[in-house]
Amino acid sequence: MKNANLYKSFFLFLFFLSPFFPALAEENIELAKFVKEVEAEKFASLYTLDLRARIGQEKYDTIKPLSEKFSLRQSGSLKNETAYRITHPTEFTKIRNQLILSEAGKFSDNLRFKVSGRAYYDAVFALTHNFPSNVRSDMQSEVELRDTYMDYSKGPWDIRIGKQQVVWGEAIALFFADTVNAKDLREFILPDFDMIRIPQWGVDLEYSKNNFHAEFVWMPVPEMNKLGVTNSEFAFPLPLPSSGTPFTYFDPSKPKTSLNNSEAGLRLSYLLNGWDFSAFYLHTWNKSPVNFRSISAGVYEFSPAYKKLDIFGATFAKEINEIVLKGEFVYNKDDYFQTYDSSVENGVLRRSWLNYLLGVDYTFFGKIDTAFQFMQKVIFNYSNLLTNEYNVNNSIALWLKTGFFNGALEPELTVVSSLMTQDLMIRPRINYKFMNNWLLRFGADIFQGKDTGTFGMFNKKSRLYSELSYNF
Amino acid sequence: MKKLLIYFFILSGLFLYPGLSRAAEPAAEEILLKSDEVRNPQLDYTVYVKITSYKAKRAPLSATYDVMIKGKDKTVIKTLSPPIDRGRTMLMLNRDLWIYLPELSKPLRISLRERLIGDVANGDIARANFTGDYTPEIIKTEQIDGKDYYVLGLLANADNVTYSRALLWVEKDNYYPLKAEFYAASGRMLKTCSYENYKELAGRLRPSRLVMTDPIIKGQNSIIEYDNMDVRPLEEKYFTKDYMKKFMD
After folding, report:
1. d(CA B12, nearest CA chain A) in Å
2. Cβ-Cβ contacts under 8 Å for B91 (sequence gap 6 or more)
3. Which of the residues A176, A228, A402, B219 could staple to B56 if both were Cys, CB 3.0 to 4.6 A apart?
4. Model pTM score
């Protein structure tokens, strides 16, 4: 409740204060109006080349120092996302209309802010009976505050305070070192990544000097992954020996906001002869609940709980002769793994594991952007009792993209496959940009392989989809 | 009298002998540097750039950018429009390149020859100077419309420079660039560029419009227009990949 009030206060503070700020700064309403008019003209024309000529050199010179003190910019998008399941039973799984609004501005060259929010309504629940009521109440509509923060900059120091995304890593199409923010996985990893990440309240302090960069992150308000509820399209299965096993499931309680429960991390980066190195440490939460289990009279009882996790990582990237090499290494210390084995008292075993990725990017014929990634997950002190896990699990990912008609039409293909479980995810799509503001997208998300695989578990959820968005 | 004749022949030789008279001309490196100084301020500056791509039988496609340049090898290009691409930001440090994509919210390494829009390569606007990227040589002098021009041959001095070779026409009197031709390593001409519409930008006359033309496909060209050039010190940290997220807003 306290947090909710804090969010509201911050949100209201920015929205109500911002329109008056030029007046406050200049103590002159007329001048402020003039500033806004010119700013509006600037934004309307997107700095058309004859701005100076149109408003005159004298006026332009007068206005420039003011605009450096305060400016505002609104942007956003309206989007329809429709998805249709192509495996039995074939039916619509999403008819979502989404509005994103963003207001960004600066009080001075050193002090900036952004407020953004998202609202959506999914008509599939009203127009069809494809999902039960628990899914409807979880996913039919949502209004949420997205990235909302203040930036302050002084010399080599920068600080961002507010609800934000902290993004580490080099990988395309997958989350590896990108471990700081909680994720909304109710649609697996299919939406755009900036929508999957849940912005978290926190402080991001950065120091940049020459080729060295240090970043300290502190997140006092724990945020956990959002997972699909039972019977939703991309719900993760519980670790049951068979689908008919009787079970009970208690919702996990989210960790409270406290100093003890806060997350913190440090990342150090250095650019040396074009080699971009970074190393990081993150004291965080395992943001998906650990399903502690007991068995009583053949009934599995799950009492999920969130647990702390220590993550160590390193990344690199370098371009050599137009070939971009990249890598990520992430070590998770004493993480929690599920087991079916009833002899393990709480159904959970702790193991450390390493996840790494090596990637190569190249543009063929100057036209086809290509990224190939090899990934390996290694579980130390491996036990056969771990559910759906291998001692060493290899995966590959391929991403291709090209453009036609000045980039207006962009076909794109992403394929990710786990070589051990022999399952894969294939994502072809075509983006068509038109009339400067519109994006039309058609695509398919195809899952194949065993039910136990990362992608195969959704082998009955393959879908076709379309997206139409208007950006402003 | 005899002495005078000797002096006359010596002085005539100095002025008329082509090899000696060429020695009085500036070196190719100096011409290229002065031509770079005409095109861009050699200090930190920001500039507004509009690129319009034309293709036969198609509506022109425009994009606008805020460009920040520090020294000779640090550039940030922030996309202002079209709205669908707004927030895309490119960073170039020497010849290392990153792109920040709002939908990913993170910077990715890319190569210099990837296309930005139409026929304009990333390097066309990210690399403000030829000096440093190319080794120049005076090929010849040429008269066009009554003006004398140096024709410089430019040879890329690294593999990842935007073009392998180029020819650049520079006016003798004032070092104003007139046009350029860019070639692949194979010798195939990739595009031509003409430097037009000289007007006052950041305190001196500079070309404010570059017309890049595809020599093979008729009617295909891109126009790069510059305006609001502003010379001012820019902080070092703006030119780091970790700062790119701050330009998104």
Report:
1. 53
2. B75, B76, B77, B97, B98, B99, B100, B107, B239, B240, B241, B244
3. B219
4. 0.79
